[in-house]
Amino acid sequence: MEHNITLKRLFDIILSLCSMVLFAIPVGIIWIAVLCSGGKTIYRQVRVGYRGRLFTLYKFRTMTQEAEETKRPQLCVEEDERTTRVGRFLRAHHLDEFPQLWNILRGDMSFVGPRPEQPYFVEQIIAQRPDYVRLYALRPGIFSMATLYNGYTYNMEKMIRRLDMDLDYLEHRSLWLDIKIIWLTATSILTGKKF
């Protein structure tokens, strides 16, 4: 198992570096588009990650500057009025997640793994499903089967469904499965499929 963990980490480092070079121009265009929509370009948020440790997740900002004025964490819902016009496009095609390549390179995340959640919502999930802590054995990921087939999670029901899919990944994970998930996600994004 230790060998598989090392191989997965090496795979993440190589693929993140290659992706940074390959997508440098699209990322630059997105950066300018977000900048022109007003406010900060990169959005930072604390999430729960590997071994239950907190880390700072980076994304392109998709919401207005006033969206986070409330102290209580909020989930983004469909047709969220807080989302900017540019942000709606980025979220629909998951392009706001490019900055997470830096999270992968740092070791906070992996290409494939359970989506990292905010501490506030992790506590709520654990109150219903204590087995959520099993996911702490994995680095959270940009891609997952849950993201592909469960989409964005904007209520507790979808969070629990995502947890079941992530636990299934935990039991069956392999480098081949990771490659399959990356391929399915990439082709869905390139063909314009919304998920």
Uncertain runs with pLDDT below 50, 5 residues or more? Answer: none
| Overall outline | globular
Physical arrangement of strands within the biggest beta sheet: 1-2
Per DSSP, what share of the residues sits in E-state strands of 2 or more residues? 5-15%
Count of helix runs:
8
Helicity, as a percent range: 40-55%
Total strands: 4
Radius of gyration: 16 Å
How far is it from the N-terminal to the C-terminal residue, by CA? 32 Å
The secondary-structure class comes to: mainly alpha
Give the number of domains: 1
Features:
8 helices, globular, 195 residues, two-stranded antiparallel ribbon
Task: Explain this structure.
- This protein has eight helices and four strands, in the order ααββααβαβααα.
- By secondary structure, it is mainly alpha-helical.
- The chain has one domain.
- The strands form two sheets. A two-stranded antiparallel sheet has the order 1-2. Strands 3-4 form a two-stranded parallel sheet.
- β1 and β2 form a beta hairpin.
- The relative contact order is 0.14.
- The mean pLDDT is 89.
Give the secondary structure arrangement, pairings included:
Layout: H1 2-22, H2 24-36, E1 42-48, E2 54-60, H3 85-92, H4 100-106, E3 110-112, H5 119-128, E4 141-143, H6 145-150, H7 156-172, H8 175-190
Parallel strand pairs: 3-4
Antiparallel strand pairs: 1-2
Helix pairs in contact: 1-4
